[in-house]
Amino acid sequence: MKQWYQRRVREHFVCSVCEGDLSQGFKEVEEKLYCGDCYFENFGEKCANCGKACVGAVIQALGRSYHPEHFVCNDCGVVLTEGFNVDNGNPYCKKCHVNFMPLCAGCYDRIEGASQWISALNKDWHNGCFTCSVCKAPLAGSSFFHDGSGNALCQVHARSTPARA
Q1: pLDDT in tens, the chain (165 residues)
Q2: What's the chain look like in SS3?
Q3: What's this model's pTM, rounded to 2 decimal places?
């Protein structure tokens, strides 16, 4: 009788998905029993990159969960381990994120996040690059004029430059 009972318990004490043995542990949901793997596959957090269950170490970023090896730059695919930048809700490494920075209309270098810059005449400029197109006097933080062709002028050269038709 004891053998029959043990065999009967073993037959019924199995995962409701894979029918694996649950003697080492289980989870119960709505009166169904699940082994660890099946529980996480059906009810656990899913990796936003691969869609598989996150078991063990998980990175929580941008409102989603990731396996650590799947939290990667949206552009080059490098694993992001030491900080990242976000653009349009996607993670980027610093090297790739620079591509999202505007170009300075004066020197044509990227205007990086910590730089002070100005938007004027429908263009972006480093503060030091926004100058009078005639004498190169700095214009950031002061009054300026334009010649109608997209060139910035200081007050002195705005008065002395003939208007263009």
Answers
A1: 444 344 444 556 899 889 888 888 888 889 889 888 888 888 888 899 999 888 888 999 999 999 999 999 999 999 999 889 898 899 999 888 888 888 999 898 888 766 688 888 889 989 889 999 899 988 888 888 888 888 899 888 887 766 554
A2: CHHHHHHHHHHHCECCCCCCECCCCCEEECCEEECHHHHHHHHCCEECCCCCECCCCCEEECCEEECHHHCECCCCCCECCCCCEEECCEEECHHHHHHHCCECCCCCCECCCCCCEEEECCEEEEHHHCECCCCCCECCCCCCEECCCCCEECHHHHHHCCCCC
A3: 0.55
